[in-house]
């Protein structure tokens, strides 16, 4: 069994072993520990240092030596251990893996064959999906297996894709939240996220409340621009509220403090959907402010305040209907899933889109971001050109 913390890894292992290697991506190896005499009750505590990295022979010998036949080359493998005695724990070539050890006053290399191209598929019986690697606790009579997932995949069998989260907190910090662990003992990234969320909440509410108080003035609301700014202030408050609610629901549910499935299902269908509407609405309202400012500059004295106010009310309603209609599919395809393994069980809220709907979803995200941005940029250019004349 493995328990992963922010900067440590606890492994409970019942099989006989004499050496522990850690392999990272792209064939980067570290020698973690050597147990010459196995003791089942021993607790090993080790810290991985840079000197524990196993170097390839190309880092230790010149090109001429590396090209030599393995039989001629291997008899010189004691040399690196002697030359780099304090900074070299192990090294390897394409066939052998060697670790350095002390024999009396000498430092020698002990080499054994190692298959660097080994296929981790549990001898053809892997249950891991989406290219996940399958590892077993024994070669002869395995009792347990575990999957190591590729990037963007997760779950006991790597059966889930983070694309299902969309642009969500779940995919960013979800797996860093430790179940049945108090906030004080959570990982650093969770604690930092909590602190930033509280700061964001305070600033967001102060900004939103003051903006609503400012733009609710009757004089400001005599023109459409004032209504757009009032609407933007309200959506800012709603966005802040939904974001805080989303964060706390994620935190408490992954800590196992909220387990009511009906509540989790309702928030799964509604929170991300509403948050998406408020964010898009705010961007479009800011774009409307930019448009009205440009129109005001262009029309100058011909600008009609009363007509602008009437149009603003109509545009706000149309925008709300338009945004909801472009996002209405999201709650339809959202569902709760159970991610179960031997160490922990989690409940996730994901959107299960078809491939065509996934493309449409990406298009909608891009549309609601780029079009308001383009409108703002064009309006700025118009204002600059008009003022410069």
Overview of the molecule:
There is one protein chain. The chain is built from ten helices and 14 strands. By secondary structure, it is of the alpha+beta class. It folds into two domains: 2-113, no CATH class; 182-388, Up-down Bundle (Rhopdopsin 7-helix transmembrane proteins). The strands form five sheets. It has a six-stranded mixed sheet with strand order 3-4-5-6-7-8. The chain is elongated, with a radius of gyration of 30 Å.
Q: Give me the Rg, rounded.
A: 30 Å
Q: State the shape.
A: elongated
Distance between the termini: 73 Å
- Just give the CATH class of the largest domain: Mainly Alpha
Global structural class: alpha+beta
Low-confidence segments: none
CATH H level, superfamily name of the largest domain: Rhodopsin 7-helix transmembrane proteins
Q: If you consult CATH, what is the topology of the largest domain?
A: Rhopdopsin 7-helix transmembrane proteins
Main pleated-sheet profile = 6 strands, mixed
DSSP strand count: 14
From the structure provided, what is the oligomeric state, counting identical versus distinct chains? single chain
CATH architecture of the largest domain: Up-down Bundle
Strand content: 15-25%
Strand order of the largest sheet: 3-4-5-6-7-8
The topology string of helices and strands comes to: EEEEEHHHEEEEEEEHHHHHHEEH
């Amino acid at each position: 069994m493995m328990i992963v913390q922010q900067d440590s890894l606890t492994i409970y292992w019942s099989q006989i072993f004499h050496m522990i290697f850690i392999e990272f991506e792209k064939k980067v190896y570290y020698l973690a520990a050597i147990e010459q005499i196995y003791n089942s009750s021993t607790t090993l505590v080790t810290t991985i240092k840079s000197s524990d990295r196993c170097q390839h022979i190309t880092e230790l010998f010149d090109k001429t030596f590396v090209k030599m036949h393995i039989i001629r080359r291997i008899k010189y493998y004691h040399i690196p251990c002697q030359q780099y005695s304090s900074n070299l724990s192990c090294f390897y070539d394409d066939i052998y893996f060697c670790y350095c050890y002390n024999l009396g006053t000498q430092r020698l290399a002990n080499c054994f064959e190692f298959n660097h191209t080994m296929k981790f598929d549990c001898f053809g019986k892997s249950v891991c999906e989406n290219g996940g690697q399958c590892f077993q606790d024994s070669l002869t009579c395995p009792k347990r297996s575990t999957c190591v997932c590729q990037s963007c995949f997760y779950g006991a069998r790597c059966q889930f894709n983070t694309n299902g989260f969309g642009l969500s907190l779940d995919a960013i910090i979800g797996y860093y939240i430790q179940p049945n662990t108090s906030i004080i003992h959570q990982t650093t990234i969770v604690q930092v996220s909590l602190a930033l969320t509280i700061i964001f909440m305070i600033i967001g509410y102060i900004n939103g409340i003051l903006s609503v108080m400012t733009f609710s003035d009757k004089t400001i609301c005599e023109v459409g621009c004032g209504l757009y700014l009032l609407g933007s202030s309200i959506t800012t408050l709603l966005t802040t509220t939904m974001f805080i609610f989303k964060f706390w629901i994620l935190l408490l549910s992954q800590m196992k403090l909220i387990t009511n499935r009906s509540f989790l299902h309702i928030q799964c269908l509604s929170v991300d959907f509403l948050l998406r509407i408020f964010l898009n609405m705010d961007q479009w309202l800011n774009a409307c402010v930019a448009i009205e400012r440009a129109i005001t500059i262009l029309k100058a004295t011909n600008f009609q305040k009363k007509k602008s106010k009437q149009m603003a009310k109509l545009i706000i309603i149309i925008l709300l209907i338009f945004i909801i209609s472009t996002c209405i599919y999201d709650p339809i395809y959202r569902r709760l899933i159970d991610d179960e393994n031997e160490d922990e069980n989690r409940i996730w809220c994901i959107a299960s889109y078809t491939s065509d709907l996934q493309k449409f979803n990406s298009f909608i995200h891009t549309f609601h971001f780029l079009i308001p941005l383009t409108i703002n940029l064009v309006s700025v250019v118009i204002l600059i050109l008009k003022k410069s004349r």
